[in-house]
Amino acid sequence: MDRANTLSHNEKKNEVNALTTIYDFSAPDIKGNEVPLSDYKDYVLLIVNTASKCGFTPQFEELEELYKEYKDKKFMVLGFPCNQFGNQEPGKEADINEFCQLNYGVSFPMFSKVDVNGDDAHPLFDYLKENAKGLLGSKAVKWNFTKFLVDRDGNVVERFASATSPSKMKNDIEKLL
């Protein structure tokens, strides 16, 4: 387990501010295996908090299309299920994985459920929120399917709202490829 996952909330905040890229983080994948995000060094990343029972859930289809279209150019979508918004991701990881594969053919990496806000927020999301603030400078993730675009150097480039269709991000992604 990496250091950022073992600290108190205040220590986490200080540690997050000292980190320079997303490559300093790791997270368990949907099957529970710890994955260092440094595995995605030199990739353009789209990091998304997801939910299976949300009005935006059909975005999985467009996320998969983006992934398939650009994966050969070192583009990766990383899905992080979250149950903090309207209890829209109540299932266990195996259920989430099965749902995503059967209903949307998701083949991009999915991770274990995380909190994206609050004291138990995964440090990765604290870092993303600090480096790509939302509307009017807010840090909190407002809902499921908030998307963070990260360049090949691990810098957070932009945050997209839940309502932003993944297909509308093509130009932003292509600029980084």
Automatic annotation (TrEMBL):
One GO biological-process annotation of the entry reads: cellular response to oxidative stress
Q: Which GO terms describe its molecular function?
A: peroxidase activity
Q: Does the keyword Oxidoreductase apply?
A: yes
Keywords, comma-separated and alphabetical: Oxidoreductase, Peroxidase
Question: Where's the Thioredoxin domain?
Answer: 16-177
Oxidoreductase as a keyword of this entry, yes or no, is yes
Q: Name one Pfam family in it.
A: GSHPx
Q: Which residues form the active site?
A: 54
Indicate the family of this protein: Belongs to the glutathione peroxidase family.
Checking PANTHER family in the record gives: GLUTATHIONE PEROXIDASE
Record's protein name: Glutathione peroxidase
Name its species.
Sutcliffiella horikoshii
